[in-house]
Amino acid sequence: MIIHRKKKARYGVIMPLTSLIDIVFMLLIYFLLTTNFMVDEGINIKLPQARASKPQVEETITIYVDKDGRAYLNDLEVTMGDLFKKVKEMVGGDKDKLVVVRADRSVILNKAVKVMDAAKAAGAGRLCLATEKDL
Known about the structure:
Elements (H helix, E strand, L loop, with lengths): L17 H17 L14 E2 L10 E5 L5 E3 L2 E3 L1 H12 L6 E6 L5 H13 L4 E4 L2 E2 L2
Parallel strand pairs: 1-7, 2-5, 5-6
Antiparallel strand pairs: 2-3, 3-4
């Protein structure tokens, strides 16, 4: 009598996922720590705070007003007359161009309004006063 042994099923190769998951998390942490976060460099101003603010994503003309009331366009200090001329050049024929005024929270309101008025007179169709999110 011939006895045949039953063949045992082979075990499949099971790859341990624990070490793979550890490596993926380490890479994620590495890239989060080494990524250059967007830093807004330029004139040192503290923006007013608002609860209903939203991020600005379209291309704009940005005018900074520091706490002493001086206006800056592209990080260069400009007078009101020069501001009018330069904004008029930058706006050109585009009446829908957005001009953002980033005024320091301690600036006298009249100075920020004069800057906004000069931008409006230069042909800016839309004006926006920048704020930071109040937490």
